[in-house]
Amino acid sequence: MKNKAAFIYEDALSRHELRSDHPMRPVRLRYTYQLLQEYGAFEHPGAVLLDPRSATEEELSWLHTSEYVAAVKALGSGIGKVDPARFGFSGGGDNPVYPGMFEAAALSTGGSLLAAEMVASGEVGAAFNISGGLHHAAAGHASGFCVFNDPALAVHYFLNRGMRVAYVDIDAHHGDGVQQAFYSDHRVLTISVHESGQYLFPGTGAVAELGEGAGRGYSVNLPLYPYTGDDLYVESFKQIAPPLIRAFAPDVLVTQLGIDSYHSDPLTHLQMTTEGYIEVVRELAKLDLPWLALGGGGYDVTAVARSWALVYGVMLGADWPDQLPAGFSQEHGAGRLRDEGSPEVPGQVKLEAKRYAEEAVAEIRSQVFPTHGLTG
């Protein structure tokens, strides 16, 4: 039903550890759930709280090779002789091998597929799997903390049902794995808004990456300069994403809502606050489409919990109080749900960011808009 919003979570999603010093901390998922629970979110009449299920090997095969799936299984169990480096894994790098790796990745992926099923069936108008959004994984190797590419698999699920999909990725890192999976497919419009690959992993996501063959004009990239803040980010997003999505007229919206664009995130350089971030999410909600939302990056764990709690509030049409519940506030040393004010950025950097964004927007309008019947 349109007024219902599913939230996918169980504690098993938060228990694993990639490595003791790894920036990706699954415990952030539990913090988000706990914050929403303290706000009474799951008692809201529109809330539907669901346990995830594990993705099957057949579902994983919609994108990933059988050799890769078998390697993830073997590495995570410590059984068999597999060269980790061949599949993108290394002890000290982005993608360490950890016990139960296959089970953890299959569970978060299955959570995204369950959410997709709920949206496609019309049981809910929106669904949020905070453990999903692992958009870098490729068909045959891990990348950027991502083992299985659940956003791409969810898109495949909708395509298998004959649905056209708009995929919007607002993680600070380019959604390269999803873009690559549908680079020649005109049934999927991929839009990624991210810190420019000139300055941040994975080094891709230039405006010139437009798609190929039948998919040319259906891959859209809006790269932004480091230290881009709320106003410029939101303005640039509004000029590109909503008009393209409306022109494309998809059957369903899939969004990757990474919050590593946050100003105190330790891995990136964008300067977003909760207010700019949630304004973009509200713009997505205004599209009034069946909506599958996924988590993604975010390495300031308190900012992650606050931001994703706000997202679920948008889905429910609920407005949580600014005063954080006492339990969460005491544990995390935070007092407010929403940020007050924005970080200071030097004037010259602001000017450079504005120029960079304006050039990217103009190039997209020139190169992509005509494909969708829009004037540039």
In brief, what are we looking at here?
The chain is α/β, with parallel strands linked by helices. The chain is built from eleven helices and eight strands.
What does this structure look like?
This protein is of the alpha/beta class and 376 residues long. It has a single domain (5-372), classed as Arginase, Chain A, CATH 3.40.800.20. Helix content is 38%, strand content 11%. The protein is built from 11 helices and 8 strands. The protein has helices at residues 27-38, 57-60, 66-77, 101-121, 150-160, 176-181, 230-248, 274-286, 301-316, 326-332, 347-367, and strands spanning 5-8, 47-50, 126-129, 165-169, 188-195, 219-224, 252-256, 291-294. An 8-stranded parallel sheet has the order 2-1-3-8-7-4-5-6, sandwiched between helices. α1 (27-38) links the parallel β1 (5-8) and β2. α4 (101-121) packs parallel to α5 and α7 (230-248) runs parallel beside α8. The longest helix is centred in the first third of the chain and has 21 residues, at 101-121. It is globular, with a radius of gyration of 19 Å. The model has no long low-confidence stretch (mean pLDDT 97).
Structure annotation, total helices: 11
Low-confidence blocks of residues: none
Structural class of the secondary structure composition? alpha/beta
CATH architecture: 3-Layer(aba) Sandwich
Rg to the nearest angstrom? 19 Å
Distance between the termini: 37 Å
Q: What's the CATH topology label? A: Arginase, Chain A
Instruction: Report the major sheet.
Output: 8 strands, parallel
Helix coverage percent of residues? Answer: 25-40%
Order of strands, main sheet, comes to 2-1-3-8-7-4-5-6
Average pLDDT score = 97
